[in-house]
Each structure stands twice: as C-alpha cells, then as structure tokens.
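Re: the multi-chain job from yesterday

Posting the exact lines I submitted so nobody has to dig through the queue logs.
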Amino acid sequence: MEKIPVLRMGPLLLITIQIDMHDKLALQLQDDVTHRISEYGSTGVLIDISSLEIVDSFIGRMLANIAAMSRVLGADTVVVGMQPAVAITLVELGMSLPGVRTALTVEAGMELLLGAVAEDANGTDHEHRQA
Amino acid sequence: MEKIPVLRMGPLLLITIQIDMHDKLALQLQDDVTHRISEYGSTGVLIDISSLEIVDSFIGRMLANIAAMSRVLGADTVVVGMQPAVAITLVELGMSLPGVRTALTVEAGMELLLGAVAEDANGTDHEHRQA
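And the result, structure tokens for all chains:
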C-alpha cells in the first residue's frame, strides 16, 4: 500500500501526502510526478500536506525538489493545507521552503495555478510586470 | 499523522485513501465527510482508492456506509481508481459494492458527479428517464 497517488485533474496534478515519507517513497514520488507531467502536459502541481503534523528537513527538501523538477518541465508547484504548527516549526528551523509557493486550501491553490496558466496564455511577461 | 484529509473542490469533496484502515480511522472519516458535506453544501463525494491493493469486506462496508450517509445528506458518491486486481477480488468475494458508483479516473468521476448535478439543476426526473 506504500504508494502516493498522483491524480490528474484537468491541467493540474494533485498529490496528497498522508504517510510517513522515507527515501524510497520520495524517489518514487519524484519519478511519478515528473513522468505524469510529461505524459499529460500538466501545467501545475498541487501538493496537499494537511495530514502532516511534522515537516522536517527531509520532507522540506523533497517538496523543494519536486517544485524544481516540475519547474524545468514547465509546471508550477503550490503546496497547500499546511497546519499552523508546521508553519511555526518550519520558520523556527530556518526552513522557508525556497522556490515553493503555498496556499491555504486546495481551492486557493487551484486558483493560483489556473490564474498563472491563464496569464501565461495571455502572453503576460512576468519579469516586466514585477519591474 | 493518522488522518485522511477531505479536500474541498468546488461543489465536490475529494478523499484519497492511502493508509491501512482501522475502526477508529473509518469512524473519523465518516464523521469528517458528513460534517464537511453539511458545512460546505457539497453535492458529490469522490473517493480515490488507487493506492489500495486490497479492498476487504471492512473497507467495502465503509465505502458503502459513506455512500449511504452522503446520499441522505444529498451528495452522490463515486469511487475512482480501483486497481484491476481489486475488482477481480471483490467479485470473487461476492462483494459488488451495492449503492456505490465507480469510475476509472478522478476526472471521469468528476464528470459523472458534475453531470448529475447539472441534470438535477435542470429538473430532470431520473426515474422517468429510466422508464
């Protein structure tokens, strides 16, 4: 039963993490996500961590890795559902999840990702917009 | 970490089951699902079981219970992602998941549920349609 499902929802992929992560499982998840992105042409990845009461440096690094891999494949990543205690611990540990965007709920994350997709389709230049 | 998240996606709820079920967890899930339906006014429940390699009579009964509880609260339930081996075992065991609709993928399940919602909104009479 040790497998984290990667669900396709239109242009997005949804992953809910419920079980204790270990090395092999994390590698398999990275493998699954990258293959699904290239198979489905997904433009966004949603990772729900609302079941996690602890996010240690291992999980933090795994999230950052998935986000970086997805980015080079053309998909944005949003981590959703973080528990308040987890946010406190992360900052206290000095881990700010670099390169990972977050949102409070799956719905907010979907809006963020689908908004980004719509903007890209309109040819908006993100770098100029920030100037 | 023993908690199965119930994610809200518009008018639907999405539940992915990844961990070994036991009595307490099943009761908590039933409790969560029914509360979320009444809180959000959800019209459909999607249960992804693609991670499950075994569906025994306990899980079968739990799925049927959640479907029945959701129905009396006005929400349809669709079980998605069943592995072929699970389907074979279920039928061999004489468990046909009565009252539970199934679909192959989350996307197909969403279409099924949102289609049913749209039909209800149009005032279609299901019983007459079947005659």
